[in-house]
Design a protein that fits this description.
The protein is α+β, with helices and mostly antiparallel strands and about 230 residues long. About 35% of the residues lie in helices and about 20% in strands. It contains four helices and eleven strands. The strands form three sheets. A seven-stranded antiparallel β-sheet has the order 8-7-6-5-11-10-9. Strand 10 and strand 11 form a beta hairpin. The termini are far apart. The N terminus is likely disordered.
């Protein structure tokens, strides 16, 4: 015996295609009283899956990231409250740069006698507030207490002395540190050794170092830590 095959019409089913108003007629096939699956075209199945992935995936990814951040933050706060110093998730202050920016022989003019003397210069970094110290000998450079003097670059402008009258007075390859206030003017030359091209290149490098130091150095403070704290407040 065979079961009678009947086709019953049904209302149209809304499709998950790119067009939200698109519908396609479905004709579920039944065998007897058992309903069959609607015949859904493969293109509409793919479109529906694509739509779900394009909307669900980015939302889920973002939600997962936010949840992970909250979880790590909660764990970090819990460890900090318990006094556990082994927490590697805590942010720490980056180290202050302390390597010297540059060092080498330069010739400087004295403040009183106006004589020129050869000195070993050391341009420090942020850890030393960009101070520039000079020594009588290179071997003494690691002991700042033995420096013949120092330059606090904050508040200075750097100017090359290239005019003929400037060259006649201060020599070749000279530059000047000019203060904004009434502090001392510094006159420095790079004519220690090497060819004219090398001396000019050396002057260019040192001018750049002094400009950088003058830009980022802070005004010198009283060595008393209590007074420094009060000034910064």
């Amino acid at each position: 015996t065979t079961l009678p095959l009947t086709v019953n019409p049904s209302p149209p089913l809304l499709c998950c295609s790119e067009d939200p108003h698109a519908v396609f007629p479905t004709t579920p096939v039944t065998m007897g009283n058992i309903p069959g699956m609607p015949q859904m075209p493969i293109d509409d199945i793919n479109a529906c899956a694509k739509e779900v992935l394009s909307t669900f995936t980015p939302i889920y990814t973002k939600s997962y990231a936010l949840a992970l951040i909250d979880k790590l933050k909660a764990e970090a706060e819990a460890k900090a409250a318990s006094g556990d110093d082994a927490d590697t998730l805590q942010l720490r202050e980056p180290p202050i740069p302390d390597e010297w920016l540059k060092e080498g022989w330069l010739v400087k003019q004295g403040a009183v006698k106006k004589s020129w003397k050869k000195r070993w210069f050391v341009a420090t970094n942020r850890a030393d507030n960009f101070r520039v110290l000079y020594f009588e000998k290179e071997a003494l450079k690691t002991d700042f207490k033995k420096a013949k003097g120092e330059i606090q670059p904050c508040g200075y402008r750097v100017k090359k002395l290239d005019k003929e009258e400037e060259k006649k007075e201060f020599g070749e390859f000279a530059f000047m540190l000019k203060p904004y206030g009434r502090r001392r003017k510094w006159y420095i030359r790079t004519d220690t050794e090497g060819s004219a091209e090398e001396k000019e290149e050396l002057r260019k490098e040192w001018v750049g170092v002094f400009q950088y130091s003058a830009r980022y150095a802070n005004a010198p403070l009283n060595p008393d830590p209590v007074m420094q704290f009060a000034f910064k407040r």
